[in-house]
Amino acid sequence: AAATPDKVYKVGVDNTYPPFEFTKDGQLVGIDVDLINAIAKDQGFKINIEQMDFSGIIPAMQAGMLDVGMGGMSITDKRKETVDFSEPYFAAGVSLVVANDNKNIASLDDLSGKKVVVKNGTVGASFADKNTEEYGYSIIQVSDSASMFQEVTNGTADALMEDYPVISYAIATGGLKLQTVGERLTGDNYGISVLKDKNDELLKMINDGLANLKENGEYDKIIDAYLD
Ligand code: GLN
């Protein structure tokens, strides 16, 4: 669809995924939120941000209910079958996480017979699925990160898989009794997504805006506002 001055693009983000999107003093804030607002301002288009379960974002785009998908969304080949991604805007990857007093699990090799909790529709969940036989763990699925952290802190699950920028931020700011262990399980980059082959003009505005923000220092300001 062509950009028109009164068109309001609907942006879907995760329901809560600090530091990328979360509510603070009643306001939706975070790196994704600031970034898409700054891009929209730079490129002169209007947006409306909606929060939802992460696994619902791409289906909502496919159903025509959203124009843009974010939410610390990793660029993957699988997703590229249904969406087009912007240039990468943040380097991430999945870490294995256990309770901070757990001395038995130091890597995937220690997961035999254990319960691993993952969040529906994420890169962490597909990594867990692919490797369940090799490492012999069982999988518990939840729909948001807070529940995933809870399952491990209360002992219902032994380990979880979460993007390292997110788990590090949660441990540092939320005082969660969790720790990351072992090697990083994946390396990936976050991108801003639009429905495949249908939004070339919007994608170009997003990429142009992102490039401008990187050049004029605004991008660094946004990142520094949330991360040291
Ligand atoms: N980066 C991960 C993914 O894209 C997790 C995103 C999330 O949980 N919001 O699957």
TrEMBL record:
Transmembrane segments: none annotated. Residues 8-228 form the Solute-binding protein family 3/N-terminal domain. SUPFAM superfamilies: Periplasmic binding protein-like II (SSF53850). InterPro entries: Iontro_rcpt_C, Solute-binding_3/MltF_N. PROSITE patterns: PROKAR_LIPOPROTEIN. One of its GO terms (molecular function) is ligand-gated monoatomic ion channel activity. Residues 8-226 form the Ionotropic glutamate receptor C-terminal domain. Belongs to the bacterial solute-binding protein 3 family. This is Glutamine ABC transporter substrate-binding protein. It comes from Oceanisphaera profunda.
